[in-house]
Write a structure and sequence with these properties.
- This protein is of the alpha/beta class.
- It folds into three domains: 118 residues, PAS domain (Beta-Lactamase, 2-Layer Sandwich), CATH 3.30.450.20; 174 residues, P-loop containing nucleotide triphosphate hydrolases (Rossmann fold, 3-Layer(aba) Sandwich), CATH 3.40.50.300; 132 residues, Helicase, Ruva Protein, domain 3 (Orthogonal Bundle).
- It has 21 helices and 16 strands.
- Strand 11 and strand 12 form a beta hairpin.
- The radius of gyration is 38 Å and the shape is elongated.
Length: 470
């Protein structure tokens, strides 16, 4: 009885014209060589894709064609050498990029007698991929722009909030923005005083005029006066021969922000008081006043009333600045804003680095309960730190900085336990948290134990001890 291969061979022999016609009219390029690498057949599609002509390569050996640079790489030769199928992408002399798959040809005795290559033009696929990437990029940009517009409307130019406390602060700032009265913004370091000042400027009738920011804490004390009020040519050693306009002159017709105003020395405070009263400024070494039309916003993290009592700040200047006071509450007094900010920072980082990281609920809860002495600036830095250090899709509780973990345990869990010693209890709380996180990552007792460097039986006992669900 004949086997299936013999039956198929007979059928193909009877219909060899169909077989040949199929190869000739195939849209994929076909190349066939014998066991010695001599070219036996190529179809028209191969001619078109490769740029090679039948009469130029039929009967020629693959090694000769490779030496003649007919192509820069031969999949068929690799198959003849290794007797293994191979696929590769390469560029032909025609300039077209193609995917070539070469496979051995065997006879009925399962002896290798040659090689067949199937070559497909993939330039259209590559171009389509590039077009899709462009479309996706445009889509992402539109999405980001829409998100930005939504955030601008909701978050007031960078002030991310959800609490009623901040909502009232923004309402107050919106009201003040419409007038030219001097504003004093107070609040702890990192609460966003400069962001609020920028919001006031953007919502004022001077939004198209200059907005000059002066960080009083960053200016050397001996340069305060010349930086704020400018100087005339040659007015002091090292002065420019052309003189220099001060910050107030640069802000003329617009707005000036005097950030950390509590850092100003008493002599400069006296001159600033005169500038505010007279609406004019004298450059250092100058004799002619320069008329000003400047809206002043001052900010500080100091208690200026205490500074006045200590003799470090002028009382009359304080009252000139404190026409419209606005205080930004610290982050610990507006807990509703923390989750909103975490989501905002994570979303921005995901967009920037093309990731899809989320914050676990337990980690988020610990961040909400933290005291935040550095306020918004500290929160943003910590979220970015955890995002960078995280190598998974979820930022876990165990990735929180030690200071937050310690405070979380001390202020939250410890308050509910009076039965055990402090150290023993705290160690158990922390150990349970580590075990839960590791088990969530590996989903296997054995792999988790290996990662933690303990025996699986030890891990099993601890899982039962802490009643951890796997």
């Amino acid at each position: 009885m004949r086997n299936s291969n013999e039956v198929i061979k007979d059928l193909l022999d009877q219909r060899s014209d169909y077989l040949f016609g199929g190869l000739e009219f195939s849209s994929d390029g076909v190349f066939i060589a014998d066991i010695d690498g001599n070219t036996l057949y190529i179809n028209p599609a191969y001619e078109e894709i490769s740029g090679l002509k039948r009469l130029e390569i039929l009967g020629k050996n693959l090694k000769t064609l490779l030496q003649e640079n007919a192509f820069n790489e031969s999949a068929s030769l690799k198959v003849l050498e290794t007797k293994q199928s191979i696929s590769l992408i390469h560029r032909y002399i025609s300039g077209r990029t193609a995917l070539t798959t070469a496979a051995p040809i065997y006879n009925s005795e399962k002896e290798m007698i040659g090689v067949i290559c199937n070559t497909r033009n993939i330039e259209d696929l590559i171009n389509l991929k590039k077009e899709l990437e462009k479309v996706n990029l445009i889509k992402q940009r539109y999405s980001q722009e829409l998100e930005l517009l939504r955030k601008v409307h909701f978050s007031a130019k960078g002030l991310i909030y959800k609490s009623e406390t901040m909502n009232e602060t923004l309402k107050l700032a919106s009201t003040a923005a419409k007038f030219d009265s001097t504003i004093l913004i107070t609040g702890e370091s990192g609460t966003g005083k400069e962001v609020l000042a920028n919001f006031i400027y953007q919502n004022s009738n001077r939004k198209d005029k200059p907005f000059i920011r002066v960080n009083c804490a960053a200016i050397p004390k001996d340069l305060f006066e010349s930086e704020l009020f400018g100087y005339m040519p040659g007015s002091f050693t090292g002065a420019s021969n052309s003189g220099k306009a001060g910050m107030f002159e640069l802000a003329n017709t617009g707005t000036i922000l005097l950030d950390e105003i509590g850092e100003l020395t008493m002599p400069v405070q006296s001159k600033l008081l005169r500038v505010i009263q007279e609406q004019e400024v004298y450059r250092v070494g100058g004799t002619k006043p320069i008329k000003l039309d400047v809206r002043i916003i001052a900010s500080t993290n100091r208690n200026l009333l205490e500074e006045i009592e200590n003799g470090d700040f002028r009382e009359d200047l304080y009252f000139r600045l404190n026409v419209f006071p606005i205080t930004i509450p610290p982050l610990r007094k507006r807990l509703e804003d923390i989750t909103e900010m975490i989501n905002y920072f994570i979303k921005n980082l995901n967009g920037k680095y093309n990731k899809n990281v989320i914050m676990s609920k337990k980690a988020e809860d610990a961040l909400v309960k933290y005291s935040w002495p550095g306020n918004v600036r500290e929160l943003q830095n910590i979220v970015e730190y955890m995002f960078i250090m995280n190598d998974r899709e979820e930022i876990g509780f165990e990735q929180l900085p030690d200071k937050i973990l310690n405070e979380h345990v001390l202020m939250d869990d410890f308050l509910h336990s009076e039965e055990k010693g402090k150290l023993e209890y705290l160690m158990e709380v922390y150990e349970k948290s580590i075990l839960e996180s590791a088990l969530n990552k590996h989903n296997s007792l054995r792999q988790t134990a290996k990662t933690l460097g303990i025996n699986p039986s030890t891990l099993s006992r601890k899982v039962k001890k802490y009643n951890i669900e796997i």
